[in-house]
Amino acid sequence: MPKQAVKKMNGVLASVFAHTGHISKEDAKEISGLEDHEFEQVYARASDIAEDLLKAEGNRMDKFIEHFAKVIDKYTKEFGDQSFF
What are the DSSP calls for 20-43, one per residue? Predict the structure, then answer.
């Protein structure tokens, strides 16, 4: 279901900001709109991303985009060949 995939992508994005201290975990959950068990899954995924970002040298934004592109790929596979275009 596309709506659920978008919620999960939003959850990962918001959770990265929570892991890096910019918002609270509760705020990230609210932004995602996910149920508790689904949110915990994306929050754990975001933990790995945030850890890599904090360790990254150079432009951290490039690293973030690289990671988030993988998240988008994962959650849009169910849309088939016509994800965006």
Answer: TTSS-HHHHHHHHT--HHHHHHHH
